[in-house]
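Researcher: Structure prediction, please.
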Amino acid sequence: MALLEKIGHILKSDITKEFKLKKKLTDEVYELTFVDHLKKRRSIEVLGKKVNFSQAYIAELIQEAVRSCPSALNSQSSRIVVLFGDSHEDFWQIVKDVQRKLIAAHVFESTEMKIYQYRAGFGTILFYEDQQTIRQLQKKVPFNSDEFPVWSEQTSGMAQYAVWTALADLDIGACLKHYNPSIDLAIAQHFSIKDSWLLRAQLVFGSIEQAATIKDEPEDSERFKIFF
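Model: Predicted structure follows.
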C-alpha cells in the first residue's frame, strides 16, 4: 500500500519541471543525454571566427550529420554546399548586393548590419534539394506525386536541424537564414550550382560572440496532448 501511495504521488507531481533528462553516473557526474544536446542548439546572431576546429573536420562533421538523416523512400535528395574563407565572404557580399537592389535605401542600413554580422562568422552552409531526384520519384511513384515536394521539405528540415545540433555540440554557434529565392540565381552562377538544385536555407556558423536571448515559449498545455 505504501508503494502504491508513492507511485500515486509521483504521477500527480509536475515531472516536466523537475525531470532533468540526465543519466546519473555518480553522485556528482552526469552524462549529457540526446535531449541535452538538442537544447544547446540556439540561434546565435553575433558570430566570430575563433573556432577551434579545422575546416576539414567541420566539413566531415556536416557530411556525416546529413548522411545520418532519413528521407522519404530513401530519396536522399539533400544537397549541401559548405563555404569557408573567401567563398564564405563572397556569399555574404552577393547577399548584400542583391538585398541592396530590393530594399529601400532608408531601411537598408539595418539589413547591412545583419549581413556584416553573418559575414564575420567562420563559414556558411547552403542547403539544397535536388528537384531532378524529386521528379524521378514522382514518375516512379505517381500515386504520391503531390507529396514528394512536401517530403523533400521535411528531408531538408531534418538535415538543417541535424547539422545545426552537431555544430552546437562543439560549442559552435549558428543561425539559420532564408535569403532565397532572391539570391538563387546569383549564387548559382557564382558557385556553379546545378540548375536542378533548389536552395532552401543558409546556416551561418562561427564562434559564439554573444549568447542567445531567452526565448518565450507557449504553455505546455497549448502545445502537447498526451493520452494514456
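Model: Strands lie at 23-24, 30-31, 47-48, 78-84, 123-130, 173-177, 197-208.
Researcher: Thanks, that helps.
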